[in-house]
C-alpha cells in the first residue's frame, strides 16, 4: 500500500545522503514543500516512469492514471507523437525562448489551432499568447473585454473554477468580490431551484435576464460573462445545451462578450473538439490551456478581431513563447483531430456512464453519475442521512466517502481526482487514447473501491459486479 503523508511527516532535517527511494523522497517533500500542496497529500506516490495510461512509482507499483495531469494529458503520458515533436525542435537547434517573436514552430501551432476552432470564430479570430497557465489566460480575457467595452464588472456562475490568481478567484465559486456578479448554474441533481431539467435551466436563464435588466438589481452592465461548458472542479456539471444557447442570446442582445473557459473541456475531452460545439454556440472569447500544450505549459486567449483594441505591450508574459510547448501542442491537436479522438471520447464516455449508473441502483452512497465524453463524475452521498422532505431530492454530500473511494482506488492501482462543491465527487479524466481493455480495468477497480467503501454503509442491495471483468485485475492492459 502507498505510504500516507502522515507516515512521512518530518522529524527534523535529513542529511543529503538520506534514502533516495520512495519513502525518503516523500519524507523530504513533507519537510521542504509548502503546506499548500494538494495532490501529494491524497496521492502519496513518487512517479518515475509513465507511458499512456500507466504510471510507475519509485516503489515499483504501477497505476492506471485517470487524473491525467488534471486533464492536461489528452494523449496520456509520453505519447510518441509528442516526444517526436519535442525532439525535432531540440535537434534542430531552434531557440526555446522567443517572447512573442514569430517562429515556424509558433506559426505551425497557430495554423493547427485555428483549424480546430468552431466555425464562425476561426475566420475572424485573433490569438493572444499569455502566461503559461489557464489562470493567466482568464486574467488576459478579463483585461481584454474590459478594454474593449470600457466596463469593469464580470458575470460568473456558482460552482465555477477559473484559476488561482486574483481576478480568476473573484470569478470562481469559492470567492466573493463586488466586481463579480454570481449567477445560478443549472444542474439536475442539485438544482438551485429544486426542480432540475428544462424548467430549472429556464429559471436560471430568467434569473440572469432579470439581474441584467432590473435597474435596481445592483449589477451594472458588465464587461463580460465567463462560463464553463462543463464545470470540472465544480463537480463535473455539464451545462444544458439550451441554457448555453440562451446565455449566448442574452449576452449578444446586450453587447456583453461571452467568454468560454475551455481550459479543461477543450481538445476533445467532452466528445467535441471544443465543448461549446455541443450547443452550437460561438463565444466571443475562448480561454485555453492544459491539453493544448501537449503536456507542457501553454495558455492562449482566442477572440473576435473586433475586440482586439489593445495597444502594443498592453498585455504580455515572459514565457509566452514556449517553443517546446507549441510543438507538443501542435502534435497533440493534430493527432486528436486526425484520429477522431473527440468522437471516440463521446462514444466511450457514453459507455462508461451507462455502466457506472448501475452503481446508483446498488449503493445508497452513490448519489449521481454524470459527465460528458471522458469527463466523468460520481457524487458520493450520506446513505444514513434522512431523505429530503419530499423524498425526491438528493441526500447530503459525503466528502469523507469520496476520500475513502480515492484511497481505495489508489490501493488497487487506480488514480482518480476529487471535486465538487463539497469535495464529494470522484472524478475521472482518462486520456483520450484509453483502450477498451483499459477502460474495463478502470471500471473494475473503481467498482471494487466503491463496493469496499459501501460495505460499511447502508446499501440498496448486494454488491454489483461490472460485466466483462478482466481475468487478472492486477494486470495493467496496454502497459
From TrEMBL:
Q: What is its EC number?
A: 2.6.1.76
Q: What InterPro entries does UniProt report for this protein, alphabetically? A: Aminotrans_3 (IPR005814), Aminotrans_3_PPA_site (IPR049704), Dat (IPR004637), PyrdxlP-dep_Trfase (IPR015424), PyrdxlP-dep_Trfase_major (IPR015421), PyrdxlP-dep_Trfase_small (IPR015422)
Alphabetically ordered keywords of this record:
Aminotransferase, Pyridoxal phosphate, Transferase
Pathway(s) of this molecule = Amine and polyamine biosynthesis; ectoine biosynthesis; L-ectoine from L-aspartate 4-semialdehyde: step 1/3
Query: Which molecular function GO terms apply here?
Result: diaminobutyrate-2-oxoglutarate transaminase activity; pyridoxal phosphate binding
Coiled-coil residue spans: none
Protein name in the entry: Diaminobutyrate--2-oxoglutarate transaminase
Q: What is the native source organism of this protein?
A: Streptomyces phaeolivaceus
